[in-house]
UniProtKB/TrEMBL annotation:
Keywords: Carbohydrate metabolism, Glycosidase, Hydrolase. One of its GO terms (molecular function) is hydrolase activity, hydrolyzing O-glycosyl compounds. The record marks 137 as: Important for catalytic activity, responsible for pKa modulation of the active site Glu and correct orientation of both the proton donor and substrate. Belongs to the glycosyl hydrolase 43 family. It comes from the Eukaryota. CDD domains: GH43_CoXyl43_like (cd18619). This is Xylosidase/arabinosidase. The lineage of its organism: Eukaryota, Fungi, Dikarya, Basidiomycota, Agaricomycotina. GO terms for biological process: carbohydrate metabolic process. It comes from Psilocybe cyanescens. Pfam families: Glyco_hydro_43.
Length: 329
């Protein structure tokens, strides 16, 4: 563990769910902005009552950190009623696109997109959510050929289990997740050239057991997807990483296509202080960095979190590890 991992990125506000990217030679972090609330913790996630987004940026991994202030607020999004949860951003065609989830006025989550001329915003939201979008935790990925993808989904409060029939079924909420058979997984859709709509239908992100060659099972809580999808690419290999939720691990799988299938490879982070684990992985100046959050700044309050960063390494076979393989014993 390094001093980077011990210290929160910022302490003047509570931040979580960091999506980190390198734009114009600078690291930009797009987190959610936790706020204090009297709402009792529940599986619906009502205690995560976020109302706006900030953007943070750094010239180097050690800072200093600039808070660019509020770049998008709930009051500016006509279709959104509450809960601006984990966002992400991407650049294409000289513009910057900010993807975010929120509960609509009917009570279920959809994903919106906002556009800016600069990576630090401010972002102007589209008047309607992305058609066909649902659930939470959008993660964008633009491949080398320029095709963009959006990954999304989360079970329990993320409502992914409510969409198994293709339409929102609030009664499915009582099961919370698949109870038998393959685990529910993230979804992925191709994005249009203007980054504002899906091209075709979204599909499941399939994660296979390397030994049995079968899809990870719903009972496999140590390895199955729960929320917080992220994709990055290295040496032609696509790395799909995610949170296991109630077991509090960050895990990853690899594949030959951004659409999958993926094969489970292992863990990259053990449980942290607080209930949730959410992350991003970014390459910067020849090194690999894991941005994540915990609840240490608030003394363990699950809905008041702080962003941290630590280094990751690759072994010879392409495995990801939080332990420096070159360090002496």
């Amino acid at each position: 563990m390094t001093s980077l991992d011990i210290q929160p990125l910022v302490t003047h506000i509570y931040t979580a769910d960091p999506s980190a990217h390198v734009f114009n030679g600078r690291i930009y972090v797009y987190p959610s902005h936790d706020i204090a609330t009297d709402i009792v913790d529940n599986d619906n996630g009502d205690q995560y009552a976020m109302e706006d987004y900030h953007v943070l940026s750094l010239p180097s991994i050690s800072g200093p950190v600039t808070d660019h202030g509020v770049v998008l607020s709930l009051k500016d999004i006509p279709w959104a009623a509450k809960q601006l949860w984990a966002p992400d951003a991407a650049t294409k065609n000289g513009k910057y696109y900010f993807f975010f989830p929120a509960r609509n006025h009917e009570g279920f989550f959809q994903i919106g997109v906002a556009v800016a001329d600069e990576p630090h915003g401010p972002f102007v939201p589209e008047p309607e959510p992305i058609k066909g979008s649902y659930s939470i935790d959008p993660a964008s990925f633009v491949d080398d050929d320029g095709q963009a993808y959006l990954y999304f989904g989360g079970i329990w409060g993320g409502q992914l289990q409510c969409w198994q029939k293709g339409v929102y079924d609030k009664d499915a909420y009582t099961t919370m997740e698949a109870l038998e058979g393959p685990a529910l997984s993230a979804r992925v859709a191709k994005l249009s050239n203007d980054m504002k709509s899906f091209v075709g239908e979204d599909v499941a992100v399939e994660i296979f057991d390397p030994a049995t060659k079968e899809l990870l099972h719903s009972s496999d809580h140590d390895r199955r997807f729960f929320e917080a999808a992220w994709v990055h690419k290295r040496n032609g290999v696509y790395y799909f990483s995610y949170s296991t939720g109630d077991t509090h691990y960050l895990c990853y799988a690899t594949g030959d296509s951004p659409l999958g299938p993926f094969t489970y490879r292992g863990r990259i982070l053990e449980p942290v202080t607080g209930w949730t684990t959410h992350h991003s992985i970014v390459e910067f100046e020849g090194r690999t960095w894991l941005f994540h959050h915990d609840a240490s700044l608030s003394g363990g309050k699950n809905h008041l979190r702080c962003v941290k960063v630590r280094e990751l390494w690759y072994t010879e076979d392409g495995s990801l590890t939080a332990e420096n393989p070159g360090a002496s014993a």
